[in-house]
# Entry
Amino acid sequence: ILDDEELSALVIAPSDAYSLNDVLEQVYEKSIPVISYDQLIMDTDKVNYYVTFNTRKAGKMVGDSIIKKMDLEKAREEKKTLTIEFLMGSPDDDASLFLFNGIMEVLQEYIDDGTLICRSGRVTFDETSIMDQNTDTAKKQLKSEIDEFYSLEKTPDIICTASDDFALAALELLEKEQLQPGDENWPLITGVNADADAVKSVAEEKIGFTVMLDRRDLAEALTKLVETYLNGDDVDINNYSQYDNGVKIIGTVTCDGKLIDKDNYQILVDNG
# Structure
């Protein structure tokens, strides 16, 4: 593909973000701009731009929704406590780290003052992350936490996850424990991605909410960036500080997510 004389830009969605140095050296020699898509290409200065979702903002959205739906301000005023456990994304994925940081940016104060208690003690990204976002590993970890710390209640009050797959795994685990949505001790389960099965569970009030990361928005942002750059115009970058690939800060265009709960899931049907 690099021998194509009509090649004007190269968009890469890396399967391995750390193995592209040799290829990008060849691209650089041909003065072809490189746009990293969805996942950041690491350890090279040969990336021009990055297009991704603002997962830190999505994390803050998750945290804010937990505060609202569990009425943490009222719980704080009444000196009540609620329990929470976290199942976060892969430790080698920056997007997962940003999501966690966004969640904790909002919830940390409630953990610090005792309004939220994590009985397992797993409250850092390293402690809560699941390598390769493996669903079986996440389910085993949650089962272990429930067996050890929630044998009486059978569940924490809140299960905060980094993906719909984890949320659905939590749902399956609780249903095996004979818990039912609507029970007094049914937890708030959170997801990310707005996958079809998860949205169905949101509509049935089994999962509290998910965050939609619309890949059409990402594709549209990429198209606009490439067209703008190739036309010689200034690219509208909205983040010049957050995305460090180990060699340099990459100018980044980010797309926002949208919270999906039982009150608005119909928009996903309406927009196809």
Summary: The radius of gyration is 21 Å. The chain is about 40% helix and 15% strand. Strands lie at 10-12, 34-37, 49-53, 82-87, 116-117, 158-161, 188-190, 209-212, 251-255, 258-261.
